[in-house]
Design goal:
alpha/beta; Rossmann fold; two-stranded antiparallel ribbon; 6 helices; 9 strands; binds 5-O-phosphono-beta-D-ribofuranosylamine
Length: about 210
Amino acid sequence: MSKSQGSIVVLISGAGSNLHAIAQACAEQRWSARIAAVISNRADAPGLGVAAAHGIPGLVLEAAERPTREAYEQGLMRLIDAHAPDAVVLAGFMRVLGAGFVEHYSGRLINVHPSLLPAFAGLHTHRRALEAGVKWHGATVHLVTPEVDAGPIVDQAVVPVLDDDTEASLRARVLEQEHRIYPAAVRALVEGRLRVQGQRVRMLPPEASR
Ligand code: GRF
């Protein structure tokens, strides 16, 4: 890999639909970066098949392979750092990451969360949105800080909650928006187009360079 080309590492645990959206945008829009590796904490994650379909090397590091969370995260950092990534992308990676890990990738670590943060941080966001009776729900892309789901917000997308929505129908509507906003945010991060001031993030347009 020539180092003038940016490098992205994507962490997954599940289906990998966001990985697919990012890989597709990266190829179709000819980003000045490529996905160097996909790492899953589950050997059975369907997203590993998505990585293979895009010709991206997939690696597995399961928590059971390491005695402690610290040891696991050290191992994960070694795998990631082998690719000297400009962006580390959490795409449905279902593990809370410790402060040491998060600080190591400060400014390079990005996540998509299926709610309009700061509403519904944590798990089961669609069920909780339905229970709370909100009329609008959505997705948030944010930079990752040690406090879970609380980092500076890069972008958000809003969807209506319909009277006949189920958890599944609401999830599908939100996911469609994740696939729209997450690739654009990852591209901006890897191209050095995010300007962060406290909790506020400005995304410069594609023609603006580092
Ligand atoms: C997405 O809803 C994302 O917001 C959440 O986990 C899910 C991952 O889906 N963090 P996929 O594996 O990208 O299909």
